[in-house]
Design goal:
Elements (H helix, E strand, L loop, with lengths): L41 H4 L26 H13 L4 H8 L2 E5 H8 L1 H4 L14 H5 L3 H10 L6 H21 L20 H14 L11 E5 H11 L28 H4 L2 H9 L23 H12 L11
Antiparallel strand pairs: 1-2
Helix pairs in contact: 2-3, 2-13, 4-9, 7-8, 10-13, 12-13
């Protein structure tokens, strides 16, 4: 039985109205194996610190991107799992294996936005814009460039160039980027937990973000488990700055000191406290002119998404189990 810390007051999650989800049929395949969560933070792995890099710190506004498009089933399932967690963990785990549809917009928001920002512009020179590479995914963009150079468009060549851009993106997501020759650029880490259907859905969103999606095109949906959404929040946003394991801290506000490890978080903080800190930051502390923490806020993450991340950490090590339909 895991320990789920709760505050005496009623969960704010239970007071939210169900949000509308993306249209479309449920995808046929769902990622069923969650990778072990270990290792140093992305920043530590790149020999960087929070003070010397903007990684993980530029996406924290509610502007410039749509809110969660995850289906109502995700919201309802997280709430039910929260009611079971700590009292009937077998039932909670089964609920968290529920399959849902996830859009490219949500994949970007959970995994990319904290570094590349809501519009994909990044923060040059450290974090490059992804708009140019995203435009290269569309054959029509290559034909447009041919015309601008005074050449006759060659559709087959344009298609091949777009395929090359797609292969480069897939390799970068699965393997990470090589260290750039320019020292002022950061190396992109691998995102091996994002499977191929999710990459294809992400590509559709990136083309829309770059303004080169086909007119009237609907972005593809991919499959994910409810717990997998929590994993993506942890790996794609939290793990940028937080180590998986290591030193923990008390659950109180801190002005200085080490960044706490993620796997100890459920033992240190309540669900409500984590939701508050991630989405709104700590409330003002009497006698302090500055925030009691330097952690940025992420209001573009929904309360249920943060709660799913909390449950992902509470149930480590995660078992490789099939998702329910």
């Amino acid at each position: 039985m895991v320990t789920i810390r709760r505050t005496p007051w009623k969960l704010a999650l239970l007071l939210l109205a169900l949000s509308a989800g993306p249209a479309g049929a449920e995808p046929a395949a769902v990622r069923t194996t969650l990778l072990p969560f270990t290792g140093p933070s992305i920043l530590r792995g790149l020999s960087l610190t929070v003070d010397t890099s903007p990684l993980g710190r530029i996406g924290g506004t509610s502007e410039g991107a749509a809110a969660s498009q995850l289906p109502p089933a995700f919201v309802a399932t997280v709430r039910k799992a929260l009611q079971q967690a700590g009292t009937n963990d077998l039932a909670a785990r089964k609920l968290l294996r529920t399959a849902i549809a996830i859009s490219g917009a949500d994949l970007y928001r959970l995994n990319c936005r904290s570094c590349h920002g809501p519009t994909g512009a990044g923060k040059p020179p450290a974090i490059a814009s992804i708009i140019g590479p995203s435009k290269a995914l569309a054959p029509a963009q290559h034909e447009k460039m041919m015309r601008a150079a005074g050449a006759e468009p060659r559709p087959e060549l344009a298609r091949q160039l777009a395929q090359h851009a797609e292969a480069s993106l897939q390799a970068r997501l699965s393997e990470g980027g090589k260290k750039p020759a320019a020292d002022h650029l950061e190396t992109m880490p691998p995102f091996a937990y994002i499977d191929e259907p999710q990459i294809l859905a992400l590509e559709d969103f990136l083309k829309a973000l770059a303004g080169v999606a086909a007119k009237g095109a609907n972005g593809r949906l991919a499959g994910e488990s409810v717990l997998g959404v929590g994993e993506q929040v942890v790996r794609g946003t939290c793990h940028v700055c937080h180590d998986a394991t290591g030193l923990g801290t008390s659950h109180g506000p801190m002005l200085t000191g080490p960044i706490p490890a993620l796997t100890s978080l459920p033992d240190r903080m309540s669900i409500e406290g984590v939701v508050q800190k991630v989405r709104r930051g700590w409330p003002p502390v009497a006698g302090l002119s500055a925030s009691p923490t330097s952690m940025p806020v992420f209001p573009f993450l929904s309360e249920e998404e943060v709660a799913a991340a909390y449950l992902f950490l509470a149930y480590l090590p995660v078992q490789a189990v099939p998702a329910t339909r």
